[in-house]
Write a structure and sequence with these properties.
60% helix; extended; 3-stranded mixed sheet; mainly alpha; single chain
Amino acid sequence: MWDDCDTNAVTMVKASDAESGRRGDVTSDTTTEQVLDDGPDEPLLTLEELCARVGISVRNVRFYTSRGLVPPPLRRGRSGYYTPDHVARLELVQELQAHGFTLSAIERYLEDIPADATPGDIALRRTMLAPWAHDRSVRMTRADLESRAERPLSDDDLALLATLNVVEQRPDGTFDVSPTQLSVAFGLIEIGFPPEAAAVASQMYADHGRQIARELYDIFRRLAWPTYKEAGMTPESVQAIVERLKPLSITSLVAAYEAGMDEIRRENIDRRTRAPRGPGG
């Protein structure tokens, strides 16, 4: 869902998807353009070719350029040309949109990408955006949820499920549900898990999850990606490697969590056994 401030702009862009791109070979953007010089050889695309390659309309390209999401075209006379860098950045914008990023969020995300990032560097970022969770949400009604729970669900029960990010209510009253987490969440309802604790725990998981993700991404970018890049691996090959890393990463996190809980339990036991006893102890 786009931010309210972005809605009109996005509507304008999407409404033009059927527009013909024939006039796209001649650039008329108000954005400052780069002059094409006799630099190193690299494949150049006209606006028409770029749109066909990425699957995007002429108006979209111009709109994203005006917002600074992609650099302006290289210019020779009145004709604009586009490089693999333009392709990579447009594909990244499309990927971010597919993941539900608002236009403002996309702008903030792209601000972190260095201006001299190569198409390969950008492709890596797009590869790392691939969803790690294979748990696709399913649509359910309240009656469906109660059938799965084998009991009526109060509004407080539904609120707890929402706090745990297991369900998300849609405007039509149905719910997007994470099926793999549903049985665990129903178990928490059965034991009367406090909503306040659920909210704090959910936020903690989200915060630590984001921090771990950033650090793992940084490790991959600094220590693994240069090796794969030097070997000439394609983004598709890197994606296959990332897919293989997913189960290892998840298993490692679970093992570290379990080891940490055992360590804390032992520390608590040691602290209680070493505590000074009272006169009657």
